[in-house]
Design brief:
The complex is a heterotrimer.
Chain A lengths: L24 H11 L1 H20 L1 H12 L1 H28 L5 H26 L1
Chain B lengths: L1 E4 L2 E4 L3 H13 L5 E5 L15 E2 L8 H11 L6 H20 L14 E2 L9 E2 L5 H13 L5 E5 L1 E9 L2 E9 L4 E6 L2 E4 L20 H7 L5 E2 L4 E7 L10 H4 L3 E3 L31 H13 L4 E3 L2 E7 L5 H7 L1 H11 L8 E10 L2 E3 L11 E3 L4 E2 L11 H23 L6 H15 L10 H15 L3 E2 L1 H20 L11 H25 L8 E2 L9 H4 L1 E7 L5 E7 L13 H4 L13
Parallel strand pairs in B: 1-10, 2-3, 2-11, 3-7, 11-19, 18-20, 21-22
Antiparallel strand pairs in B: 4-6, 5-6, 8-9, 9-10, 12-18, 12-23, 13-17, 14-16, 15-16, 16-17, 23-24
Chain C lengths: L1 E8 L9 E8 L6 H11 L18 E4 L2 E4 L12 E4 L6 E3 L2 E2 L2 H9 L18 H8 L9 H5 L1 H5 L6 H11 L7 H9 L12 H5 L6 H20 L3
Parallel strand pairs in C: 1-5
Antiparallel strand pairs in C: 1-2, 3-4, 3-5, 6-7
Helix pairs in contact in C: 2-6, 6-9
The chains are: A mainly alpha, B alpha/beta, C alpha+beta.
Chain lengths: 130, 598, 236
């Protein structure tokens, strides 16, 4: 039997628009969660720069402290802080589903408590050391 | 026309078809097994079975008890050698499924749990929550992926069997996705196409349950046996007919009429058992035919309630509590919420009987072999002789496993020694079908599949319902004749090739009309009342073993009409006795010959 | 009352892309999208869509309703006060109207060896406690409707990604106390189209009509895959 070449267009192959993530609130929230990495990167950059300055000596260190006190830097780091809280929230909600160990509600509360303890501990430790 | 060759063709990808395909592939891995289905296998209607699958499991149970329940449930119209084989093999089949991964519900010690079911003396129904059919189907489908010998033809619709001198030669099918006709030759063909519930208007069945396989065999002269026996499931949702499993009653649900009265006690099923403490074979755990008939009686007395124009009674599960419902009947809760907006934990569910199952089907022997050599049938499309005049809930899921395996092994044994007939032998038949389908198309037609189908299903509901009389059935038959004439004039106005559902529905309707006729004519011929076939005509309201302890056979005549003949019932150890449930039934337990002949 | 349903029509023998066509249907409080499609089919028998059980268990009737993947039989017009737009499941190749090509989906399912691997022969069932059953039970409830694939942008971007349902099924068997096939399944899950293709968008779990939570299954799979990798580092 000869296979006739189809003249008809055939099945339709859909294409995904570049703006797919704008089409639904759920995807927008997902992109926001992913975007939290950007201010965090800035914060890490600041931190690394600070270490570098510390290594160079007193003058550079003072220079870095001044840099960190500029309003736009404070603002960006504040943003990074909020972003990290938001990311933590989404992460904590996802975690019990990935590691089903106890009741989800209990696990979420436990994670926040652990975060608070560790963060407080670190601040006290570092604050005492400096 | 595309031509293919296989060793075995299985038509239908539901539980029976998949089990048969696996059995054939296991019996002889060298064989090519084609699995044709008009839908993807996991869409098959086995998926909607909820309650469970029966097998003797507990120490206090016995094969004899399961045998007795099944035979008496069948109103003595079951083939007793078939029932013996069935009860003896059901357990190992359920274990086999367990070893393939079926997530059966368990007791705390890890053993498989069994639940109560209607008409069964002892708990012997294995279940996977209330989605047993779903889990069985998916377990079988997934297991079938292990066998390279099984080649799936998804969305292929069989339009005709190829038969050469009373020997099967293969099938003709339409590839739904391209509209092309394909001729597949084979040494053995297994029909596993399911029931025909969709020829009735209110039914629990999916849209695909259109009786195709029954009609395919019938058109080649194979008898359809016991077609008058159509099971109304007592608990379907009003309107849609969506199934609310018998397991609800097995778990302790009760049935109430509009006054909140447990009316089953008035129909030989009492005394009343306390709510939430069900007793096997009492009240709500009576067999399906009796319960559906009791609904009809209540309706005549004006004791049913109204739910948006439908007469209903209520299934009350409230006393079982939210937690128990969530663990044992989660799907029922989901269905009730979605389709009647009711939380069963806080309100009773309105329900009414709906057509559920065709006890009859393609006549086969105990090896699933039909009267055409090499043609097998299994599952709801077949009548191997297990259900007689009334099927017990949870016997059919076990049936498709037990006899699916038989059919697959038998077909494999045959395929190993048979030869394919020459292509030339089927050339004429294939060409005729091709021309027939080609001539179905026209640019316009005044009539539609939908119009004919609606009249068909309403006529069947009217004439061949829970209770039947001569005048009603005669008028149904007249309607069927008129519809057949209209069908011959009907044309397919969509002439596209790809996924032409108009063509498919057209062919399904033709199958449905044939099956409906066999149901109606068999019912007319049986002038007694037995199991699911209840007549109101004078002198026919009782069982009549003198004249009708016999199977009906609907056979197609060359002129296209149905002839009814009769076949004796095989009785091995349990002579006919009166069927008793409730208090009266307790005397029957233990001894088969205790009852008196009717 | 009458409602407008817009359907994305596509005839592969004529059209180059889907076009919306509006129909009027009768709707009461119980009319599902599937009921509406069946009504439309009476007006225009050429409309193509799949359906069967109409009780949300066979998985045939997945469509996009106003851009969200839904089962037609379990979505009700009463919840859409204005118009409703129905189109074929996203990210799948459209064969005709609302019918998509499910073969890639089935190929992905088959790829993960979704069956119990344990060749021990025994005439008695395994023991499995309710707690052991509960570990995988939720993941065994997948009806293969494909909605999660239409919700997954990663599958949309990369059709080779095994996708939510297939990985869930692999996880279902990996977590089954009776199974011994995890080692055979892990290579597929570890591959670049396996669990690591998922970025935990999580929309798959939102749209799942059976609350299977495929996102959880995939990310449990990531933990298993990471464990697998660490163990392999210590092997000679």
């Amino acid at each position: 039997m000869v296979v006739k070449k189809k003249s008809a267009p055939g099945p339709y192959q859909p294409v995904m628009a570049r703006t797919w993530w704008l089409q639904h609130r759920y995807f927008q929230m997902y992109m926001l969660r992913e975007a939290t990495v950007l201010p965090l990167l800035f914060f890490i950059g600041c931190l690394l720069y600070g270490l570098y300055c510390l290594n160079l000596g007193e003058v550079q260190w003072q220079h870095w402290l001044a840099f960190m006190a500029q309003p736009w830097v404070v603002l960006l780091n504040l943003l990074a802080f909020i972003a990290s809280l938001f990311h933590a929230k989404t992460f904590f909600e996802l975690f019990p589903r990935v590691m089903p160990l106890a009741r989800p509600g209990l696990m979420i509360a436990g994670q926040w408590l652990a975060t608070l303890l560790v963060a407080t501990g670190l601040v006290l430790l570092l604050g005492g050391w400096l | 026309m595309q031509q293919l060759q296989q060793d075995i063709i299985v038509v239908g990808g539901g539980g029976a078809g998949l089990r048969a395909a696996i059995a054939a592939a296991e019996a002889s891995p060298g064989l090519q097994v084609a699995l044709l289905s008009k839908v993807y296998p996991m869409r098959s209607h086995t998926v909607a079975a909820e309650g469970g699958a029966a097998a003797v499991t507990l120490d206090e149970d016995s094969l004899a008890a399961h045998f007795q329940d099944t035979v008496s449930g069948s109103d003595w119209l079951a083939e007793q050698d078939v029932v013996e084989y069935f009860v003896a093999h059901a357990y190992q089949e359920l274990v086999q499924l367990e070893r393939w991964g079926c997530p059966w519900s368990r007791k705390t010690d890890g053993k498989v749990q069994v639940r109560r079911f209607g008409g069964m003396k002892t708990e012997r129904t294995w279940f996977a929550a209330d989605k047993t059919g779903f889990h069985i189907l998916h377990t079988l489908f997934q297991t079938s992926l292990r066998y390279p010998a099984i080649k799936r033809f998804d969305e292929y619709f069989v339009v005709d069997l190829l038969v050469v001198e009373q020997q099967i030669a293969g099938v003709l099918a339409i590839d739904f996705s391209s509209g092309k006709l394909v001729q597949i030759m084979a040494k053995a063909v297994i029909l596993a196409t399911g029931g025909a519930g969709r020829v009735f208007h209110y039914n629990t069945n999916g849209g695909i349950v259109t009786g195709d396989g029954m009609a395919l065999a019938y058109r080649h002269g194979v008898a359809l046996r016991d077609m008058e026996f159509v099971q109304y499931h007592p608990t379907g949702l009003p309107g849609s007919g969506i199934l609310i499993t018998e397991a609800c009653r097995g778990e302790g649900g009760i049935l109430l009429n509009k006054d909140g009265y447990r009316y089953l006690q008035d129909y030989g099923l009492g005394p009343v058992t306390p709510a939430g403490q069900p007793q096997n074979k009492y009240m709500e755990l009576g067999p399906r035919d009796k319960l559906s008939q009791a609904f009809w009686q209540q309706q005549q007395l004006g004791l049913t309630a109204d739910y948006q124009g439908h007469a209903v009674v209520y299934l009350d599960l409230r006393h079982l509590g939210k937690a128990h419902l969530a663990s044992r009947l989660p799907f029922i809760c989901e269905l009730a919420k979605a389709y009647v907006n009711i939380d069963p934990a806080t309100a009773p569910i309105p329900i009414r009987p709906a057509v559920h199952y065709t006890m009859g089907g393609i006549l086969t022997d105990i090896n699933c072999q039909t009267s055409i050599a090499g043609l097998f049938a299994v599952g709801e499309c077949a009548s191997v002789g297990l259900h007689g005049a009334n099927r017990l809930g949870s016997n059919s899921l076990s049936e498709l496993l037990v006899f699916g395996k038989v059919a697959g092994e038998q077909a494999a044994a045959l395929a190993l020694q048979a030869n394919l007939p020459p292509l030339s032998a089927v050339a004429v038949q294939s060409e005729q079908q091709q021309n027939y389908i080609g001539n179905l198309f026209a640019d316009s037609c005044d009539d539609t599949v939908h119009a004919i189908r609606t009249e068909l299903t309403l006529a069947m509901e009217q004439g061949c319902g829970i209770y039947r009389d001569n005048a009603g059935m005669q008028s149904c038959l007249d309607t069927l004749q008129a519809l057949k004439t209209r069908y011959q004039q009907l044309k397919v106005t969509d002439n596209s090739k790809v996924y032409n559902s108009t063509l498919l529905q057209h062919l399904e309707l033709g199958f449905g009309l044939d099956v409906a006729e066999t149901i109606c004519r068999s019912a007319l011929a049986r002038t007694e009342s037995r199991g699911a076939h209840q007549r109101l005509d004078e002198g026919m309201t009782k069982r009549n073993d003198n004249d009708f302890l016999t199977h009906s056979l609907a056979i197609r005549q060359p002129d296209g009409n149905t002839m009814i003949s009769w076949q004796p019932v095989k009785i091995t150890s349990l002579p006919p006795a009166e069927r008793h449930y409730g208090a009266k039934g307790s005397g029957l337990a233990g001894s088969g010959s205790a009852g008196s002949n009717v | 009352m009458s409602k407008t349903i817009n359907i994305a029509r596509y005839n592969p023998e004529q059209d180059s892309q889907p076009q919306l066509q509006a129909f009027q249907v009768d709707s009461d409080h119980s009319t599902s999208v599937l009921d509406a499609l069946l009504q439309v089919q009476q007006q225009d028998p050429s409309l193509g869509f799949r359906w069967s059980c109409r009780m949300a268990i066979c998985g045939s009737c997945g469509v996009m309703v106003n851009g969200i993947p839904k089962l037609g039989c379990k979505t009700f017009l009463r919840d859409y006060p204005d118009e409703v737009t129905v189109s074929a499941l996203a990210h799948f190749v459209v064969e005709k109207d609302l019918i998509v090509d499910m073969q890639p989906f089935l190929a992905h399912l088959s790829a993960v060896k979704p069956y119990l691997i344990n060749d021990q022969q025994n005439a008695e069932p395994h023991r499995q406690t309710p707690a052991q059953l509960a570990k995988y039970q939720q993941f065994a409830n997948c009806i293969n409707c494909g909605l999660c694939y239409s919700a997954c942008p990663q599958f949309g971007l990369n059709p080779e990604f095994l996708g939510p349902a297939a990985i869930t099924l692999a996880q279902r068997y990996n977590l089954d106390s009776r199974d011994q096939g995890k080692a055979a399944r892990m290579p597929e899950l570890n591959s670049k189209n396996g669990v690591w293709g998922c970025t935990f968008v999580g929309f798959c779990s939102e749209v799942c009509p059976k609350k299977v939570d495929p996102a959880a299954a995939i990310n449990q799979g990531k933990v298993a895959s990471a464990g697998d990798f660490i163990i392999s580092m210590f092997k000679p």
